[in-house]
Batch of 2 targets.
Target 1
Amino acid sequence: MDERPPSDGGDDGPRKSAKALGKAFSNIDLDGHNLPPSPAPSSPRNGKRYALATELVYTEGTDQYNASSQPIYQSATFKQTSGSGGNEYDYTRSGNPTRTHLERHLAKIMCAERALVVTSGMAALDVITRLLRPGDEVVTGDDLYGGTNRLLKYLSTNNEIIVHHVDTTDPSVVQKALSSRTAMVLLETPTNPLIKIVNIPAIAKATHEANFKALVAVDNTMLSPYLQNPLELGADIVYESGTKYLSGHHDLMAGVLAVNNAALGDRLYFPINASGCGLAPFDSWLLMRGIKTLKVRMEQQQSNALRIAEFLEAHGFRVRYPGLRSHPQYDLHNSMARGAGAVLSFETGDINISERIVESAKLWAISVSFGCVNSLISMPCRMSHASIDAKTRRERAMPEDIIRLCVGIEDADDLIEDLSRALVLAGAVNLTPNSFSAADHGKAKKVDTQSNDIF
Ligand SMILES: Cc1ncc(COP(=O)(O)O)c(C=O)c1O
């Protein structure tokens, strides 16, 4: 198994002879930078590909003692066997065996040529945006994660990147924003918290037709590789926050990038090595452990989410979840993904009532983020999306009262009972002798299954 890592030695001083550099850097990228060879995805020794559930847990390591769990190489440096360097690893900013093991495993499960792991989902996006040059245009959505919005705003304010926020749920709207100046199209699907679906294949095709050099990058955080593989849908780059489903326990921050083009992988590796945002050995080990249980967690979270979405909808709330037939893009979502995920949102029609629901829930922790084994509740406009100013939120039709539920692996009946109690305490429902239904605060109504506009 070729575990050959990236390497530049950290210390760029005289100890590196030209010969050693030549050995370590066999490639030159488009901008003339020397680059190390790409580590290949790991693959089973007999070459057989298994179902994803099996691939998630199946790994082959090169540990000298055959450790079942890849050891944590908690070392910044690696001694060289000769004065001219050139060993597999020399400096952890450039490469570390624990990180390489994780990257090769991720490349395998993401069906990618190369995967890279960095310190957060936003660090992954930062690495991607370093491909951009002043004057480049980016076309992206109008319902983006707040942190993504913030980074793009920074780039448009300071780095002369022109960013077009459009409704990416309509490929014809995206098409109109594309031109030969488009360098990147940045997509999220489902969007968060409005849970709108984006047609990745249609937009990827239109983008490449408009400019064959333009890159389509997809944030796959909401679904994880277990449920969706954007590279197979036409994307050039997939990235996600490993802080969410991949790790699953909210005990680490990480970001993952994956590509199917070795040269593009090298270009993405360059800023990681140059800036040192590669994931640390301990966090790489922890993320590797989380990935092994991705299937069982996601299956449980998803089935709980469907129960809760059906419960809320049956009681008259306006619910956004692509696992519900009432979702206007149910068919589109299912044409791309293997499941609906475990994030949903609903509206009450009243900000104060929404606040009381969030505060009254006990099992549902008030927390940003999602993908954790514990269930979480939040008001995005007050928390994860507060970095988008109120005017922009209004322009993007983001309801201020919207509540986001990120469903965990607990018992579904307990979660429903706790939520019911919170709805009653908050005055969100009218009680009837045997049941309750959403109090009419103007918006808490069932969705129109025929219309896309209602979302
Ligand atoms: C959809 C989405 N993308 C990216 C990120 C950023 O990930 P991280 O917090 O790991 O930087 C988040 C974080 O919440 C997110 O929700």
Target 2
Amino acid sequence: MKKLLAICPICKKPIYGKDIDINNIDLSRVSHWPVKYTHCHSHNGEPFHAITMYIDSNFSVRATEVSEFLKIQK
Ligand SMILES: [Zn+2]
């Protein structure tokens, strides 16, 4: 999916459907919309950060939230 979903407010990266593997979201597991999807990246020399998108059932982004501080443990 090449649709432009959002532009990251921190680094201005355009985020497309293909960047977040939107086709791999298992819609049968979605109990309510919009879905919160967090995309972590570094771009334009900005340190690693996360943008959370609220995606509705038409795959339109209703709102975004950014996190500049995060730690992911595996
Ligand atoms: Zn960004």
